[in-house]
Amino acid sequence: MASNMGIPEKKTDTLLYIIIVCCIIAFPVIVLAGYTLEMTADKNGNIQIFEAIGSISEYMTASNLGNAFTAVLKGSGLTRNSCVLAFFASLIAIMYRLVGNGKRYHRRGVEHGSARWGNRQEKGIIADTTKAGFYNNVICASDVFLVLDRKVREKNEAAEEKDKKKKKGSRKKKSPSKLTGTDISIKDVMGAGREAEKIKPMLNLNMIILGGSGTGKSRFFVKPNLLQCNTSFVVTDPSGELVESCGKMLMRHGYEIRVFNLNDMKHSSNYNPFHYLRDSTGEINSNNVIKMINVFMTNTKAEGMSGGEQFWDDATRLLLSSLCFLLIETGTEEEQNFTGVLDLIHKAKVIEGREEEKSELDLMFDKRKEAAPKALSVQYYEEFKQAAGKTMQSILISTTTKLQYFKLENVRNLTHADNIRLETLGDKPTALFIVIPSTDTTYNFLAAMMYTQLFDTLYDRAINYYHGRLPVHVRFILDEFANVGKIPDFEKVLATCRKFEISAQVILQNISQLKRLYEKSWEELPGNCDTLIYLGGKDQFTNEYLSKELGKETIDQLSINQTKGKQGSSSYNNAIMGRELATIDELTTMDNNNCIVMVRGLYPFFTNKFNLSEHPRYSELGEEWKPDTEKGETASDNPYVYYLDRYVETQSETEFIDFSEFIDTGDTLNADTLKLRFVTSDDNGAEIEQFDSIMSDIPAEIRQRLEHCTELYCTA
Prior knowledge:
- There is one protein chain.
- The protein is of the alpha/beta class.
- Among the domains are: 94 residues, no CATH class; 126 residues, no CATH class; 60 residues, no CATH class.
- A 9-stranded mixed beta sheet has the order 5-6-4-7-8-3-9-12-13, with helices on both faces. A 3-stranded mixed beta sheet has the order 14-16-15, with no helix packed on it. Strands 1-2 form a two-stranded antiparallel ribbon.
- A hairpin with a 5-residue loop joins strand 10 and strand 11.
- Helix 10 packs across helix 11 and helix 11 runs antiparallel to helix 14.
- It is elongated, with a radius of gyration of 38 Å.
- 33% of the residues are buried.
């Protein structure tokens, strides 16, 4: 791997090295040559050239080297002078290189910057493009990949050692990997980064992908990586285009598909944030409760809130905390949702002039205080009750306004229960598509809450259930990240997720979006991502940021001065100066087929975007399906058409059935415990008939509805 501090050698440096080496090698030769000349001289000291040449074989031997050096020590003129000359020539060259040249030109060739584009050899450090290794990679560009092979590599190395022992002496190595082509097992593809000899510590797989509209963020990055089928995926899917294109393909490769659809809530799995407020042991995690409320408040906050309005925001947060804790501490599973919070607020009444008169909600908290005086719900509610009558009325109205979304039937049905099972995403190959509207961000606070709880839940799962690492790596592909909403402490998540087998790829149109969403900590997010991919764009701030990140290179500048006239002259001047590796205008006008990939520890790569049509599984995408007219197929027969019913568990619905003629309970019954409730005593203590006999008396139409509903509201 090339070092960023590498200094290219100049011609002068090379010449000095040659002189030093030659002097060292030639030293004994010079000594022997001088000794030979002296031995063949006549009585007057005159050198007999022809006689000396004829005597070379006699005197120029290794055995005479000692005699030659003895002659030097005795001070023989010619031999001594030859040796002294060779010695001082070597000494001068060494001193010039180490003392003079080293001090003056310690950064020769990179005085103004050492930036350059990475080469093919450096790309090979991070990528495994063999047939077996291709599906173990995260695709960055046409020839830049990041390896996912922590476990696979260990397995292959062990197999190689075994193969070597069986076939000693064989020069030809056979690939021991059984993971070839489409036969690769996702269970074997685990881990993050690459334990390469030249890159330590391992790279994380966190990425920032920047690209303006039309630069191919989905086509050149998201879809190719979904086609890899090498991890579990959590994908932000604007308008549902990705689940339409890739859902069927992922199912074919053993994936379980889940869809949280804010664009069409009737075709969505249920998500209840309250379901994830307990840890793996079943204990209430108070931090998760506070975090859930903070995410909700942050992402439903009106822009441009003044300091005076901040008081109402804080007061609303306080009341919500007390109500949420009360539901978790005392409420049934059916009551623990945001609809239940809204019902509690309706029980709080403050009448002007009669502030000391207790409401139904006050009585509930009094009862809770008797049972658990130090409960968090009680503490928060007592702080809320310190407000005056009119102020308390305003807080109640403000909180009700915040919860207005949960009055809508679609939102209420979406969040009243949970069947999306976020905690299991790292257990087996799973793809969760979070479908958000392209333009309407009204309900995107639910997506922000889900992402926050996803990270917390997977962290807890990895630590307490799997003792450190998830068995299947989970990749968050966060397309249109700026529209998802603000995730609290996201920069800390990026800094710690690698060790739990989690990574995040943040996809943005420009850096300005990130700066606007995370005002104080936006610079930390790219700092915690070892890879940055730039697909192109015209945003001025983004191009300035990238130009600075790429750095400067040192170039030679030739200046030519010419004067005209009878005595015209010209002069040439060479100078060394710095230049941005990519200027702002070069980034702005970059070809749409090109991209820039920056990987920590390597020089940046200027290369081509990945060609989706060249992926081996390209034909499995939905948009590539073509009807077979000979078989009578039409476009309506496309098996990849966006039928979410194929991927989504049927959303549980609420049925309102009058059972007063059959059972007099005045209560809410859960479908799972319905039979038990029927065979227990009624309010009067009388024994109710057996379940089967009662069901036989219920009309068939109601019985059929009963089989498909989750909750039964029995009215007296």
